[in-house]
Design goal:
The protein is of the alpha+beta class. The protein is built from 15 helices and 11 strands. The two termini are 37 Å apart.
Protein backbone atom coordinates (compact mmCIF):
# COMPACT_ATOMS: atom_id res chain seq x y z
CA UNK A 1 0.00 0.00 0.00
CA UNK A 2 2.87 2.37 -0.61
CA UNK A 3 1.73 5.86 -1.60
CA UNK A 4 3.65 7.66 -4.34
CA UNK A 5 3.57 10.97 -6.14
CA UNK A 6 2.60 10.31 -9.75
CA UNK A 7 2.61 13.90 -11.02
CA UNK A 8 3.42 17.42 -9.88
CA UNK A 9 3.69 20.97 -11.14
CA UNK A 10 4.15 24.44 -9.64
CA UNK A 11 0.58 24.54 -8.32
CA UNK A 12 -0.23 21.00 -7.18
CA UNK A 13 0.76 17.36 -6.97
CA UNK A 14 -1.11 14.08 -7.31
CA UNK A 15 -0.62 11.06 -5.04
CA UNK A 16 -1.62 7.48 -5.77
CA UNK A 17 -2.26 4.78 -3.18
CA UNK A 18 -3.96 1.40 -3.01
CA UNK A 19 -6.75 0.53 -0.59
CA UNK A 20 -7.49 -3.15 -0.01
CA UNK A 21 -10.86 -4.76 0.61
CA UNK A 22 -11.18 -6.39 4.06
CA UNK A 23 -13.56 -8.99 5.47
CA UNK A 24 -15.29 -6.48 7.78
CA UNK A 25 -15.83 -2.75 7.76
CA UNK A 26 -13.88 -1.99 10.93
CA UNK A 27 -10.74 -3.63 9.55
CA UNK A 28 -11.34 -1.89 6.25
CA UNK A 29 -11.58 1.50 7.95
CA UNK A 30 -8.48 0.88 10.04
CA UNK A 31 -6.60 -0.09 6.90
CA UNK A 32 -7.96 3.02 5.18
CA UNK A 33 -6.66 5.19 8.01
CA UNK A 34 -3.21 3.65 7.58
CA UNK A 35 -3.38 4.47 3.87
CA UNK A 36 -4.51 8.03 4.54
CA UNK A 37 -1.76 8.54 7.13
CA UNK A 38 0.76 7.36 4.57
CA UNK A 39 -0.66 9.75 1.99
CA UNK A 40 -0.66 12.54 4.58
CA UNK A 41 2.97 11.86 5.54
CA UNK A 42 4.16 11.88 1.93
CA UNK A 43 2.14 15.01 1.23
CA UNK A 44 3.58 16.73 4.29
CA UNK A 45 7.11 16.13 3.01
CA UNK A 46 6.18 17.67 -0.31
CA UNK A 47 4.41 20.63 1.33
CA UNK A 48 7.26 21.38 3.74
CA UNK A 49 9.80 21.29 0.92
CA UNK A 50 7.64 23.83 -0.90
CA UNK A 51 8.42 26.33 1.89
CA UNK A 52 12.18 25.86 1.59
CA UNK A 53 14.54 28.02 -0.48
CA UNK A 54 16.44 26.93 -3.58
CA UNK A 55 19.71 27.37 -1.72
CA UNK A 56 20.44 30.94 -2.84
CA UNK A 57 22.06 33.35 -0.34
CA UNK A 58 19.60 35.30 1.81
CA UNK A 59 19.71 38.34 4.07
CA UNK A 60 18.10 38.52 7.51
CA UNK A 61 18.16 42.08 8.79
CA UNK A 62 21.69 43.18 8.01
CA UNK A 63 23.17 39.70 8.13
CA UNK A 64 24.05 37.80 4.96
CA UNK A 65 23.51 34.06 5.18
CA UNK A 66 24.53 31.20 2.93
CA UNK A 67 23.39 27.60 2.96
CA UNK A 68 25.50 24.89 4.56
CA UNK A 69 23.68 22.46 2.31
CA UNK A 70 20.64 20.31 2.98
CA UNK A 71 20.50 18.47 6.26
CA UNK A 72 17.93 15.90 7.35
CA UNK A 73 15.51 16.56 10.18
CA UNK A 74 12.53 14.65 11.54
CA UNK A 75 9.22 16.48 11.88
CA UNK A 76 6.00 15.33 13.49
CA UNK A 77 2.73 15.65 11.54
CA UNK A 78 -0.88 14.55 12.20
CA UNK A 79 -0.20 11.58 9.91
CA UNK A 80 3.20 10.37 11.10
CA UNK A 81 6.84 11.23 11.63
CA UNK A 82 8.61 12.36 8.44
CA UNK A 83 12.20 13.17 7.50
CA UNK A 84 12.86 16.21 5.34
CA UNK A 85 16.04 17.45 3.69
CA UNK A 86 16.11 21.22 4.16
CA UNK A 87 18.58 24.04 3.73
CA UNK A 88 20.37 25.23 6.86
CA UNK A 89 21.81 28.76 6.68
CA UNK A 90 24.56 30.46 8.62
CA UNK A 91 26.63 33.62 8.33
CA UNK A 92 30.30 33.53 7.36
CA UNK A 93 31.11 34.37 10.99
CA UNK A 94 29.34 31.27 12.27
CA UNK A 95 26.86 31.57 15.14
CA UNK A 96 23.20 30.58 15.04
CA UNK A 97 21.83 28.68 12.11
CA UNK A 98 18.68 29.71 10.31
CA UNK A 99 16.17 27.41 8.65
CA UNK A 100 13.85 29.15 6.17
CA UNK A 101 11.62 26.10 5.81
CA UNK A 102 10.70 26.29 9.48
CA UNK A 103 10.05 30.02 9.44
CA UNK A 104 8.02 29.94 6.24
CA UNK A 105 5.91 26.91 7.22
CA UNK A 106 5.55 28.07 10.85
CA UNK A 107 6.82 24.83 12.33
CA UNK A 108 6.59 24.83 16.14
CA UNK A 109 9.49 22.90 17.68
CA UNK A 110 9.48 19.82 15.45
CA UNK A 111 5.71 19.80 14.83
CA UNK A 112 3.81 21.08 11.82
CA UNK A 113 1.25 23.77 12.70
CA UNK A 114 -1.71 21.43 12.24
CA UNK A 115 -0.23 18.85 14.57
CA UNK A 116 0.66 21.52 17.13
CA UNK A 117 -2.90 22.82 16.95
CA UNK A 118 -4.32 19.32 17.36
CA UNK A 119 -2.18 18.34 20.33
CA UNK A 120 -2.50 21.64 22.20
CA UNK A 121 -6.27 21.51 21.76
CA UNK A 122 -6.41 18.00 23.18
CA UNK A 123 -3.97 18.82 25.99
CA UNK A 124 -6.01 21.84 27.02
CA UNK A 125 -8.84 19.37 27.72
CA UNK A 126 -6.99 16.31 29.02
CA UNK A 127 -3.72 15.25 30.62
CA UNK A 128 -0.84 13.97 28.48
CA UNK A 129 -1.61 10.22 28.97
CA UNK A 130 -5.19 10.82 27.76
CA UNK A 131 -3.94 12.75 24.75
CA UNK A 132 -1.44 10.01 23.98
CA UNK A 133 -4.14 7.35 24.15
CA UNK A 134 -6.52 9.37 21.96
CA UNK A 135 -3.85 9.90 19.30
CA UNK A 136 -3.08 6.19 19.25
CA UNK A 137 -6.68 4.93 19.36
CA UNK A 138 -8.28 7.43 17.00
CA UNK A 139 -5.52 8.76 14.75
CA UNK A 140 -3.05 5.91 14.44
CA UNK A 141 -0.31 8.14 15.88
CA UNK A 142 2.20 7.10 18.50
CA UNK A 143 3.97 9.96 20.28
CA UNK A 144 5.87 10.28 23.54
CA UNK A 145 4.35 11.90 26.61
CA UNK A 146 7.30 14.29 26.76
CA UNK A 147 6.62 15.41 23.18
CA UNK A 148 2.98 16.21 24.01
CA UNK A 149 3.94 18.21 27.08
CA UNK A 150 6.89 20.06 25.51
CA UNK A 151 4.96 20.96 22.37
CA UNK A 152 2.02 22.31 24.35
CA UNK A 153 4.41 24.35 26.49
CA UNK A 154 5.74 25.94 23.28
CA UNK A 155 2.24 26.74 22.02
CA UNK A 156 1.20 28.09 25.41
CA UNK A 157 4.35 30.21 25.66
CA UNK A 158 3.51 31.78 22.31
CA UNK A 159 -0.04 32.49 23.49
CA UNK A 160 1.26 34.05 26.71
CA UNK A 161 3.80 36.19 24.86
CA UNK A 162 1.25 37.49 22.38
CA UNK A 163 -1.61 38.23 24.79
CA UNK A 164 -1.11 41.98 24.73
CA UNK A 165 -0.30 42.41 21.04
CA UNK A 166 -2.79 39.94 19.53
CA UNK A 167 -6.35 41.15 19.94
CA UNK A 168 -9.33 39.04 18.90
CA UNK A 169 -12.50 40.09 17.12
CA UNK A 170 -15.92 39.52 18.63
CA UNK A 171 -18.60 37.53 16.82
CA UNK A 172 -21.23 39.23 14.69
CA UNK A 173 -24.07 39.53 17.18
CA UNK A 174 -27.55 38.96 15.78
CA UNK A 175 -28.96 41.46 18.31
CA UNK A 176 -27.58 44.72 19.69
CA UNK A 177 -25.46 44.52 22.83
CA UNK A 178 -27.29 46.49 25.54
CA UNK A 179 -25.25 45.56 28.63
CA UNK A 180 -21.95 43.93 29.51
CA UNK A 181 -21.10 42.21 32.79
CA UNK A 182 -17.58 41.85 34.13
CA UNK A 183 -16.86 39.33 36.86
CA UNK A 184 -13.88 37.77 38.60
CA UNK A 185 -13.52 35.05 41.17
CA UNK A 186 -10.94 32.68 42.56
CA UNK A 187 -10.73 28.93 43.03
CA UNK A 188 -8.06 26.64 44.45
CA UNK A 189 -5.36 24.86 42.46
CA UNK A 190 -2.82 22.39 43.88
CA UNK A 191 0.68 23.71 43.12
CA UNK A 192 3.78 21.53 43.17
CA UNK A 193 5.83 23.71 45.53
CA UNK A 194 3.28 25.64 47.55
CA UNK A 195 0.22 23.39 47.86
CA UNK A 196 -3.30 24.69 47.36
CA UNK A 197 -3.34 28.27 46.08
CA UNK A 198 -5.97 30.61 44.68
CA UNK A 199 -6.07 30.92 40.91
CA UNK A 200 -8.19 33.62 39.30
CA UNK A 201 -10.81 33.54 36.56
CA UNK A 202 -12.46 36.49 34.87
CA UNK A 203 -15.42 36.75 32.49
CA UNK A 204 -16.83 39.42 30.21
CA UNK A 205 -20.39 38.61 29.15
CA UNK A 206 -22.44 40.37 26.45
CA UNK A 207 -26.23 40.63 26.83
CA UNK A 208 -29.11 41.68 24.60
CA UNK A 209 -32.06 43.86 25.61
CA UNK A 210 -34.01 41.02 27.26
CA UNK A 211 -31.05 39.77 29.27
CA UNK A 212 -29.95 36.84 27.10
CA UNK A 213 -26.23 36.19 27.19
CA UNK A 214 -24.84 36.16 23.65
CA UNK A 215 -21.11 35.71 24.17
CA UNK A 216 -18.51 35.36 26.91
CA UNK A 217 -14.78 36.09 27.02
CA UNK A 218 -12.82 33.96 29.50
CA UNK A 219 -9.54 34.86 31.20
CA UNK A 220 -7.51 32.94 33.77
CA UNK A 221 -4.04 33.00 35.31
CA UNK A 222 -1.95 30.76 37.55
CA UNK A 223 -1.76 31.45 41.30
CA UNK A 224 0.40 34.42 42.22
CA UNK A 225 0.90 36.69 45.18
CA UNK A 226 -0.83 39.99 44.55
CA UNK A 227 -2.63 38.77 41.42
CA UNK A 228 -0.75 41.34 39.30
CA UNK A 229 -0.41 39.20 36.17
CA UNK A 230 -4.07 38.23 36.20
CA UNK A 231 -5.33 41.74 36.91
CA UNK A 232 -3.19 43.22 34.12
CA UNK A 233 -4.29 40.53 31.69
CA UNK A 234 -7.96 40.85 32.58
CA UNK A 235 -7.78 44.63 32.67
CA UNK A 236 -6.45 44.62 29.10
CA UNK A 237 -9.41 42.50 27.98
CA UNK A 238 -11.93 44.75 29.74
CA UNK A 239 -10.34 47.91 28.30
CA UNK A 240 -10.57 46.54 24.77
CA UNK A 241 -14.26 45.83 25.25
CA UNK A 242 -14.93 49.29 26.69
CA UNK A 243 -13.19 50.85 23.67
CA UNK A 244 -15.46 48.85 21.38
CA UNK A 245 -18.63 49.68 23.35
CA UNK A 246 -17.99 53.05 25.04
CA UNK A 247 -21.68 53.83 25.57
CA UNK A 248 -22.82 50.42 26.83
CA UNK A 249 -23.26 50.08 30.63
CA UNK A 250 -20.67 47.84 32.27
CA UNK A 251 -21.91 45.92 35.32
CA UNK A 252 -19.27 44.68 37.75
CA UNK A 253 -20.30 41.43 39.46
CA UNK A 254 -18.47 39.63 42.24
CA UNK A 255 -18.80 38.19 45.71
CA UNK A 256 -17.83 40.19 48.78
CA UNK A 257 -14.02 40.11 48.45
CA UNK A 258 -12.62 43.66 48.77
CA UNK A 259 -9.90 43.13 46.15
CA UNK A 260 -12.53 42.32 43.52
CA UNK A 261 -14.24 45.68 44.01
CA UNK A 262 -10.93 47.53 43.90
CA UNK A 263 -10.45 46.16 40.38
CA UNK A 264 -14.05 46.47 39.15
CA UNK A 265 -14.58 50.07 40.18
CA UNK A 266 -11.85 51.11 37.71
CA UNK A 267 -13.87 49.85 34.75
CA UNK A 268 -17.53 49.44 35.66
CA UNK A 269 -20.48 51.82 35.72
CA UNK A 270 -22.51 49.72 38.16
CA UNK A 271 -21.14 47.54 40.97
CA UNK A 272 -23.37 44.66 42.03
CA UNK A 273 -22.63 42.01 44.61
CA UNK A 274 -23.77 38.59 43.45
CA UNK A 275 -27.45 38.19 44.33
CA UNK A 276 -27.09 34.50 45.15
CA UNK A 277 -24.32 35.19 47.64
CA UNK A 278 -26.59 37.75 49.30
CA UNK A 279 -29.41 35.18 49.31
CA UNK A 280 -27.15 32.64 51.01
CA UNK A 281 -26.47 35.12 53.79
CA UNK A 282 -30.19 35.70 54.19
CA UNK A 283 -30.67 31.93 54.44
CA UNK A 284 -28.14 31.90 57.29
CA UNK A 285 -30.04 34.71 58.98
CA UNK A 286 -33.35 32.87 58.59
CA UNK A 287 -31.88 29.75 60.16
CA UNK A 288 -30.55 31.74 63.11
CA UNK A 289 -33.77 33.73 63.62
CA UNK A 290 -36.11 30.75 63.30
CA UNK A 291 -34.13 27.76 64.57
CA UNK A 292 -36.98 25.61 65.91
CA UNK A 293 -38.81 22.94 63.92
CA UNK A 294 -42.18 24.55 64.63
CA UNK A 295 -40.82 27.77 63.07
CA UNK A 296 -39.97 26.25 59.69
CA UNK A 297 -42.97 27.69 57.85
CA UNK A 298 -42.26 31.10 59.35
CA UNK A 299 -38.60 30.80 58.41
CA UNK A 300 -39.27 29.98 54.74
CA UNK A 301 -41.92 32.69 54.44
CA UNK A 302 -39.56 35.29 55.86
CA UNK A 303 -36.76 34.15 53.55
CA UNK A 304 -38.99 34.21 50.46
CA UNK A 305 -40.25 37.67 51.33
CA UNK A 306 -36.86 39.27 51.97
CA UNK A 307 -35.29 37.68 48.87
CA UNK A 308 -38.16 38.93 46.72
CA UNK A 309 -38.00 42.41 48.21
CA UNK A 310 -34.21 42.55 47.91
CA UNK A 311 -34.47 41.73 44.22
CA UNK A 312 -37.40 43.96 43.29
CA UNK A 313 -37.86 46.83 45.76
CA UNK A 314 -35.78 49.97 46.26
CA UNK A 315 -34.11 50.36 49.67
CA UNK A 316 -34.66 46.72 50.65
CA UNK A 317 -31.06 46.07 51.62
CA UNK A 318 -31.11 48.80 54.27
CA UNK A 319 -34.50 47.69 55.59
CA UNK A 320 -33.40 44.06 55.82
CA UNK A 321 -30.19 45.07 57.57
CA UNK A 322 -32.17 47.12 60.09
CA UNK A 323 -34.55 44.25 60.74
CA UNK A 324 -31.78 41.70 61.30
CA UNK A 325 -29.81 44.14 63.48
CA UNK A 326 -32.81 44.85 65.70
CA UNK A 327 -33.54 41.15 65.98
CA UNK A 328 -29.96 40.42 67.05
CA UNK A 329 -30.01 43.24 69.60
CA UNK A 330 -33.34 42.45 71.26
CA UNK A 331 -33.99 38.72 70.91
CA UNK A 332 -32.63 35.97 73.10
CA UNK A 333 -30.77 33.21 71.22
CA UNK A 334 -27.89 30.80 71.58
CA UNK A 335 -24.38 32.11 71.03
CA UNK A 336 -23.81 30.35 67.67
CA UNK A 337 -26.99 31.86 66.18
CA UNK A 338 -26.06 35.31 67.43
CA UNK A 339 -22.61 35.01 65.86
CA UNK A 340 -24.23 33.92 62.59
CA UNK A 341 -26.46 36.98 62.59
CA UNK A 342 -23.49 39.23 63.29
CA UNK A 343 -21.76 37.75 60.23
CA UNK A 344 -24.83 38.55 58.11
CA UNK A 345 -25.02 42.05 59.55
CA UNK A 346 -21.37 42.68 58.70
CA UNK A 347 -21.87 41.41 55.16
CA UNK A 348 -24.93 43.58 54.49
CA UNK A 349 -23.29 46.60 56.11
CA UNK A 350 -20.32 46.26 53.76
CA UNK A 351 -22.29 45.39 50.62
CA UNK A 352 -25.64 47.23 50.83
CA UNK A 353 -24.48 49.95 48.42
CA UNK A 354 -23.97 47.22 45.81
CA UNK A 355 -27.43 45.68 46.29
CA UNK A 356 -29.61 47.89 44.07
CA UNK A 357 -30.88 44.81 42.28
CA UNK A 358 -34.20 46.38 41.38
CA UNK A 359 -32.40 48.75 39.01
CA UNK A 360 -30.63 45.88 37.24
CA UNK A 361 -33.78 43.76 37.06
CA UNK A 362 -35.78 46.65 35.62
CA UNK A 363 -33.25 47.05 32.79
CA UNK A 364 -32.54 43.33 32.30
CA UNK A 365 -29.00 43.70 33.56
CA UNK A 366 -27.23 40.78 35.18
CA UNK A 367 -27.41 40.42 38.98
CA UNK A 368 -25.54 37.14 39.45
CA UNK A 369 -21.94 36.04 39.02
CA UNK A 370 -22.88 32.52 37.96
CA UNK A 371 -21.04 32.92 34.65
CA UNK A 372 -17.79 33.56 36.51
CA UNK A 373 -18.35 30.79 39.04
CA UNK A 374 -19.03 28.40 36.16
CA UNK A 375 -15.79 29.56 34.55
CA UNK A 376 -13.87 28.55 37.68
CA UNK A 377 -15.28 25.06 37.28
CA UNK A 378 -14.94 24.78 33.50
CA UNK A 379 -11.55 26.44 33.08
CA UNK A 380 -9.84 25.22 36.24
CA UNK A 381 -11.55 22.39 38.09
CA UNK A 382 -12.66 20.18 35.18
CA UNK A 383 -9.16 20.01 33.71
CA UNK A 384 -6.68 20.78 36.43
CA UNK A 385 -8.03 19.22 39.62
CA UNK A 386 -8.37 15.62 38.49
CA UNK A 387 -6.99 13.01 40.85
CA UNK A 388 -3.79 14.06 42.59
CA UNK A 389 -2.72 16.54 39.90
CA UNK A 390 -0.17 19.13 41.01
CA UNK A 391 1.15 21.93 38.85
CA UNK A 392 4.28 23.93 38.28
CA UNK A 393 3.90 27.64 37.54
CA UNK A 394 4.66 27.37 33.81
CA UNK A 395 2.45 24.34 33.27
CA UNK A 396 -0.48 25.98 35.05
CA UNK A 397 -0.03 29.23 33.11
CA UNK A 398 0.11 27.39 29.79
CA UNK A 399 -2.98 25.27 30.36
CA UNK A 400 -5.06 28.11 31.82
CA UNK A 401 -4.17 30.37 28.89
CA UNK A 402 -4.95 27.71 26.30
CA UNK A 403 -8.20 26.74 28.02
CA UNK A 404 -9.29 30.38 28.12
CA UNK A 405 -8.63 30.79 24.40
CA UNK A 406 -10.21 27.42 23.61
CA UNK A 407 -13.33 28.05 25.70
CA UNK A 408 -13.97 31.55 24.32
CA UNK A 409 -15.90 30.91 21.12
CA UNK A 410 -14.07 31.72 17.88
CA UNK A 411 -10.77 32.57 19.60
CA UNK A 412 -9.04 29.26 19.02
CA UNK A 413 -9.28 29.59 15.25
CA UNK A 414 -8.33 33.28 15.45
CA UNK A 415 -5.24 32.43 17.48
CA UNK A 416 -4.03 29.93 14.90
CA UNK A 417 -4.88 32.26 12.05
CA UNK A 418 -2.69 34.93 13.65
CA UNK A 419 0.08 32.41 14.24
CA UNK A 420 -0.07 31.33 10.60
CA UNK A 421 0.20 34.97 9.59
CA UNK A 422 2.87 36.22 11.99
CA UNK A 423 4.61 33.14 13.39
CA UNK A 424 6.90 33.52 16.33
CA UNK A 425 10.57 33.98 15.53
CA UNK A 426 11.75 32.73 18.91
CA UNK A 427 11.47 29.23 17.54
CA UNK A 428 13.09 29.82 14.16
CA UNK A 429 16.74 30.37 14.89
CA UNK A 430 18.75 27.32 15.99
Amino acid sequence: MEAKIISSNEESFTIQTTVLYKDNMLKAEEHLQECLNEVGSLSSIELLEYFDTDGSPITIGETNLTTKGKLEKEYQTPYGAIVVDRHVYQSSKGGKTYIPLEENSKVIGTATPKFAKMISSKYSCDAAPGVQRDLSDNHGRTVALSFIKNLTDLVGTIALAKEESWSYTLPDFTKPVTSISVGLDGTCLNMMESGWRETMCGTIAFFDSVGNRMHTIYTAAAPEYGKEIFLNKFGTEVSRVINLYPKIPIIGLADGAHSNWTFLKKYCDILTVDFWHASEYLAKAAKAMYPKKKQQNEKYKWLDDVCHNLKHKMGSASRILKQITEFEEHQQMIKSNREELKTVITYFTNQKERMSYYKNVDKNYAIGSGVTEAACKVIVKNRMCKGAARWKDLGASVVLTLRSIHTTKFRWEQFWSKYSQYGYSCYIAH
